[in-house]
Write a structure and sequence with these properties.
Elements lengths: L2 H28 L4 E3 L4 E3 L2 H25 L3 H23 L3 H23 L2
Antiparallel strand pairs: 1-2
Helix pairs in contact: 1-2, 1-4, 2-3, 2-4, 3-4
């Protein structure tokens, strides 16, 4: 494998690792497990949800960047614009559905950490 692929793989793996680190630190400090309102109740956001969601985000971001690199002249710029739009949309979930201020803060931090890892590792390759 070439260096670019290795770096991308490490980035995609690093996003869940960073998110889990934040979750592990934030949940005891915040004193609550983050939860969101769903249709008729609430759902606690545990470490498995954090890992799966951040891994899927990383794979989707990598796939999008690969497509853009093949079909656009400025893939990094286009990817960054799309990534910022996706981040903004993703932040509406914690902002509107979190159960409590501590949960909202933890969830926003998780989104921002995953976004930062993916941006720094993928588009800057």
């Amino acid at each position: 494998m070439n260096t670019s692929v290795n770096r991308s793989l490490l980035t995609v793996a690093g996003a869940p690792a960073a998110a889990l680190a934040v979750w592990t630190l934030a949940v005891p400090l915040a004193g609550t497990a983050p939860a969101v309102r769903t249709g008729g109740g609430t759902q606690t956001i545990g470490p498995a949800s954090v890992a799966v969601a951040s891994l899927l985000a990383g794979l989707a971001g990598w796939a999008l960047l690969a497509v853009l690199e093949r079909w656009t002249s400025r893939p990094g710029r286009v990817w960054t614009i799309i990534a910022l739009a996706v981040l903004a949309l993703s932040l509406t979930g914690p902002a509107g559905n979190a159960v409590g201020g501590a949960a909202a803060l933890v969830l926003v931090l998780l989104h921002l950490v995953v976004a930062a890892v993916l941006y720094l590792g993928l588009v800057r390759r």
